[in-house]
Each structure stands twice: as structure tokens, then as C-alpha cells.
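Notebook entry, structure prediction.
Reason for the run: the old model in the group folder had no record of what sequence produced it. Starting over properly, with the input documented here first.
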Amino acid sequence: MKGETPEERTAIAQVMRGHAQHIPTEIHDAMDNCGTGGDKSFSFNISTTAAFVLAGGGVHMAKHGNRSISSKSGSADVLEALGINLDLKPAELGKVFDKTGIVFLFAKNMHPAMKYIMPARLELGIPTIMNLTGPLIHPMALETQLLGISRPELLESTAQVLKNMGRKRAIVVAGPEGLDEAGLNGTTKIALLENGEITLSSFTPEDLGMVGYAIEDIRGGNAQENAEILLSVLKNEASPFLETTVLNAGLGFYANGKVDNIKDGVALARQVIASGKALEKLRLLQEYQK
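New structure, fully documented this time:
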């Protein structure tokens, strides 16, 4: 099979973005961190948890996500369990973002045309080109992005698509054992888009001075169970969930350009969680996006 070319994926994403809702906001340096999903790891909501850490560290996070396709709990499911309103109008979402520096954009509402595709995706229950496209069609013009994929062979081509879509800086990450996040269970591979150039590299937990964990150690559950895990992490309770969040938030800080390397990003993530600033961002979102 030929597979999807960067040009084809860019064209599909641009057409779909053209039909997306517009979010009026005064913030012009928004970031998203999301994965393609479909990795069948049944992990807790890693990128959603990390989004609060990134926001607590001063990154303007416009988290774009959906309900679960292949796991028990997608980002929309876990945030709904935490009391976040998925159905605010675009103008209201813009106000939330301006006031708090974080907002959740429910993909189903941001892309009305998707209603014709979603039933087929749910029926298939397997990854499709829409998994690859979803993280690319953020309704805002993102400046930076951390994008997870479960297929490492697509790292460079996905970074090329992000370049085509106008990202100033981005990281595409493929974790060990097919994880669409950075993992503590082996070698994580990344493609860094910086100054128009794409660089491939990899790292292990040991490279960052971190302890390794098996993928089974970060298994999640349903939306309510994953909400409890998210809260435990933001409360700085020691666990593999905390360490995995620290790793991915650290990578996010590096993708955003807040730090010069992943190790410094990990240190910043620990500091933000320990200070309570990540939990504070959750409380703010619960207050304003309700």
C-alpha cells in the first residue's frame, strides 16, 4: 500500500479546518498536545493531564479532543467527568481561554461536518486516516504543538504536515510499544520541527534520570477512574501516572520552546505540579467552562 503522503494529509486537514468553528480570542500563541489515539494501550488520559501542567507553567493550552474511539475514556469523557461543559458556544470558549489560559474544544462541536464520519469511525473501532487527521485540524491557528502517534514510521512525515500547516515549532512523538505518547517503558522517538527544519532523535527514561515503568503500570479505566487518576497527579501523589505526566509535560515544554531540552522540561513540570499551579488551572477551568 502507498500510504498517506504529507501533501495528501495536509490537503485533507486544510479542507476540514476550513469548515471548523472559529474561536474568537485575544491569545495568539496557543498550543495543543494531543495524540492520534487508537494505540490500544488503555492508558490513563496522559495528554489531558499534562495539558494542565503545561498551562500551569504559563503555556496557553487550547486542548482539542474527542470522546474515546478505542479506549474506555477519551479527553472529552474524562473532562466531562470533572464537570467541564463540552457544549459551550465558540464565543464563550474564547472568553474562557482569554480568562484562564486553558480551554477544552470538543472536536464534535468544533467540526460539525464530522457528524457524517463519526458513526462509521465508531462502528469500525479501529484507527483510520481520521486518527491521523484529527490532531491536525485544530480550529485555532496554533503556534506550537506536541502531537503523539502510534506509528513511528510516520514521525517525519507528520512533522512535515505540521510545518505545512504553519506551526512555528512542534514535536511529533512515538512512544515504545506503540504508545502515542512519550513512555517510561522503553525508547521514545521524536521529530522536532524548529526553524523550518525537522530533526529526528530518541531518548530513554535513563537519559533523563527517570525510573522506567511497564506499560501495564499506567493502565487507566473508565472516565470517572481516569478523572481520579488525573486529580491524584495534579495533587502530586507519587505514582507511575505522575512520572508519565511529568515526562510528557516536560516534552511539551520543550515543544513549546519554554526550555532548551527535555530534561529541563521534566524539571519544570515537577516544579509546576509541586507548586499547585497545575491543579489551580483545573479549578479555573472547572469554574469558567461549566
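Summary: The two ends are 46 Å apart (CA to CA).
The old model has been moved to the deprecated folder.
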